[in-house]
Amino acid sequence: MELNMELLPGNGRHLYEQIYEYIRGEIRSGKLLAGERLPSTRQLAASLKIARTTVELAYEQLEEEGYLVIRRGSGAYVCETQNIPSLTEGSRKSAEINIDRNSQTQRSCPALQENPKRKTEIDFSPRTIDMSMFPYATWRRILRGILTGDRADLFRRGDPQGDPELRTTIAHYLHLSRGCHCDPEQIVIGAGNDYLLMVLGILLGKTSFHSDVQNGVRIGMESPTYLRAADVMRSMGFSIEPIADDENGMRADALEESDCQLAYLMPARQFPTGVVMPYPRRAELLSWAAEKEGRYLIEDDYDSEFKYRGRPVPSLQSMDAGGKVIYLGTFSKSIAPAIRVSYLILPKDLLPAFHEKAGFLSCTVPRLDQAILNEFIQKGYFERYLNRMRNHYRSKHDRMLELLKPMEGKFDIRGQGAGLHLVLHLKNSDACLDAVGGQEKIRQDEIEQKLADAARAQGVIVYPLSEQNLPENPSSRRQASPAILLGYAALTEEEIREGTQKLIQAWS
Predict the structure, then answer these.
(1) In the chain, what are the domain boundaries?
(2) What tens digit of pLDDT does each residue of 445-495 get?
(3) Which fold has domain 157-379?
(4) What is the CA radius of gyration of the chain?
């Protein structure tokens, strides 16, 4: 039989969603009867002039919801649906509105759904990623294959550190991609960086290795930094101390002058500044850690997969010969925020402490999710997906830089060549303040807020750099030029173009 449908690219719905909704509607309305055979995926793809995988994804979704049965070698057939309640016209309209709203939210700002915004606003959030290319069909196929195998073991309590198979896979992946050297026994898997930082709090946060220091173990952090990490550490009993930095990142001499036993840093690409720590500075920090027992560097390698020029910078852990680096990584940026799979590499001398103090914990990632991710990596899907996303983000990155050229006289653009956001540093505060109605001799954060307010008046959301400053000891920070963060990952190239034009207008 033939399906007379018209696809509308650019209407806010993916093509597979349009196919799925059309066939589902035909079945629910009785136009497609139980037992009817649908066109093959190849035939329908050819008639619609789209990729066959798009049709396969729609058919798979319909099969999962009980509308179709797919018989290998025979075709797709309509199932009996008399027990499926039909939607009224009103409820169908309401459902479509909800789908549209969710689609818009995911497209523009998936990680900041708690901060609603008007649809007319363009949000340059530095914390979001693009989910439009997520390999849903592959993920679904892996899940189906695992469940078909009747893996009862996946529904039992597993190893507190995470399944050995996944830990072995991660160790191999990190060795190839980041130069990390570790055994699977050193890896701890958890549901997000927050959980793993809390595990570190159990291991290191309440008592120091130094007998003369009890409670409130001091940890050095750059400022600005990733504030969520600071919040978690503070809640676990760490005492946060801002450490002076420069264009090369955290200064080892400033860390030496502090009373810190730990230091949290992002050497591959510091968030939010985008600074890449050079080899000499890394060596200095490793030397600091090696000077005393109980000192450790916590390396947060949050988005090292996305580098667009040259070879990836090796991890700090790959340079560590003395077991002084605690390595923290995640798949939330590289795959999807909801995956919630992160991992620690613990130095071998911390493993006894883990088993003693945290061995009673259950791994917070479901074993089924671990099995899916393990197969996703092992069979090469992850590598191919990363390659696609690098090219995808590189295109947005390059387009953004091209569109920002008219602003190079006013702003120094930093953080290029990697990551998912850029940093615009104001060259001449007075000149820009004149344009946005500012005044003389005001603080960095006030200048940034005026820039953000001017952008918001044009329907664009940007993020002041100073919002990421630690609240502790603000007088210790070096004076920085006012700066704005511009994330581009979740925006379409059209939104990037429109948003950039509005920023030029706002700050001209």
Answers:
(1) 15-78, 157-379, 384-506
(2) 889 999 999 999 999 999 999 999 998 866 555 557 899 999 999 999 999
(3) Aspartate Aminotransferase; domain 2 (3.40.640)
(4) 26
